[in-house]
Design goal:
Layout (H helix, E strand, L loop, with lengths): L16 H5 L6 H13 L4 E8 L3 E2 L3 H11 L7 E4 L5 E2 L6 E6 L7 H24 L5 E3 L10 H15 L3 E3 L18 H6 L4 H11 L6 E4 L6 H12 L3 E6 L24 H13 L6 E4 L5 H9 L6 E4 L10 E8 L2 E2 L14 E2 L2
Parallel strand pairs: 6-7, 6-11, 8-9, 9-10, 10-11
Antiparallel strand pairs: 1-5, 1-12, 2-4, 3-5, 3-14, 12-13
Length: 358
């Protein structure tokens, strides 16, 4: 059956083609192996098989294919079959095969495996968070926790996850959104509040005056560790211009609204009791339309607990937990000149789901 999937054009990835062609990003032993074969005049026709060991959602395949198309010695002489970004994959399932002269692509193995590992990790983590959130918006916020050069592909991996689950996901930098034509979004940050001497209302007013009409103005309300009072002050000051408030209380603090209630729940950080306090206060004063966004240490497990308890959260901001973990890929030559040649413990695993890459 012909797939309706579409692959991204290789040019979008802005790869450092010349360096990749020289093996600059490749583990030295692959470059040495390739040089040995070329020196010997040997050009084995191989089938390289790529897999990983988890239940996961594939990411980075279009980027990996771009590496092969742009950096292999003779792309037209290679035959590549592959799954698509966003496909659900099982442990040891073959996600891609590369057939052809091994010396034409031996210098790229590190690059395409690393690409698949990183992007699949992000896609899978984000899918799990989106599902835990039960359709509520999630803001992808790990940009500050990693090097800027990973933002582009990570943002696209988050976008792919949103397509899998059917829930749009917001990202916080324009670079994260560049491959799919989106833009970064964000709230009134602590730094702006500090720039107005710690006056959240003043910062919110000036931000709202500057912000385009179509921007959802969301304000952090934990600067003074008094989220209920600050949320109400901001709501009164901005009126209908306020889209939402964001709770981001540090795990080392207990919000002032909870000081008289401690003893039968975990009071620190952003917790269900604090969210309810803010929701009830806003509703009591007629601000039912103001949304509550939560952030700060949220994981799949914490989101699941919030949702199971029907905590009145409208959106989740999730950062470092989305880039933690590992999802390693492996590549094996399983056929050489048509003869089985996999190392002990590995064998050729044909996968009818793979499609020819053109």
């Amino acid at each position: 059956m012909t797939s309706t999937h579409k692959r991204l054009d290789p040019s979008i990835f802005d790869l450092p083609v010349e360096k990749m062609q020289t093996g600059w990003y490749t583990d030295a032993y692959f470059n040495h192996a390739r040089a040995t074969l070329i020196e010997d005049g040997r050009h084995p026709n191989v089938v390289m098989q790529v897999f990983q060991k988890n239940n996961a959602y594939l990411g980075g395949m279009d980027e990996a294919i771009a590496v092969l198309k742009l950096c292999a010695d003779t792309w037209p002489d290679l035959t590549v079959h592959a799954l698509y970004d966003g496909d659900s994959i099982e442990p040891y399932e073959t996600v891609m095969t590369i057939e052809g002269d091994y010396t034409a692509f031996a210098h790229l193995e590190t690059v395409y495996l690393g690409t698949l590992a990183r992007r699949t990790l992000i896609t899978t983590n984000t899918v799990n968070v989106l599902r835990a959130a039960n359709g509520k918006p999630v803001i992808f916020m790990p940009a500050r926790h990693d090097h800027h050069r990973v933002q582009t592909g990570d943002g696209y991996s988050a976008y792919v996850a949103g397509q899998i689950v059917g829930t749009p996901i917001g990202v916080t930098t324009d670079e994260q959104a560049s491959w799919w034509g989106g833009s970064g979004l964000g709230t009134v940050p602590h730094s702006l509040i500090a720039s107005y001497g710690g006056d959240t209302v003043a910062a919110a007013k000036h931000f709202a005056d500057w912000a385009p009409d179509d921007m959802n103005v969301t304000v952090l309300v934990d600067f003074e560790n008094d989220s209920v009072r600050t949320a109400l002050e901001v709501a009164h000051a901005l009126g209908p211009r306020l889209w939402g408030v964001r709770l981001d209380t540090s795990e080392t603090l207990v919000d002032r609204a909870l000081w008289e209630e401690m003893g039968d729940f975990k009071p620190n950080g952003v917790n269900p009791r604090l969210v309810w306090k803010v929701r009830e206060a806003l509703d009591r004063e007629g601000f039912n339309e103001v949304r509550i966004v939560v952030s700060g240490g949220f994981t799949v497990e914490k989101i699941h607990d919030f949702e199971e308890d029907d905590v009145p959260v409208d959106a989740y901001g999730v950062g470092s937990s989305l880039i933690r973990g590992s999802n390693d890929f492996t590549a094996d030559i399983v056929l050489t000149d048509g003869v089985p040649s996999a190392k002990v413990g590995r064998h050729h695993r044909p996968n009818p789901r793979l499609e020819l890459v053109t």
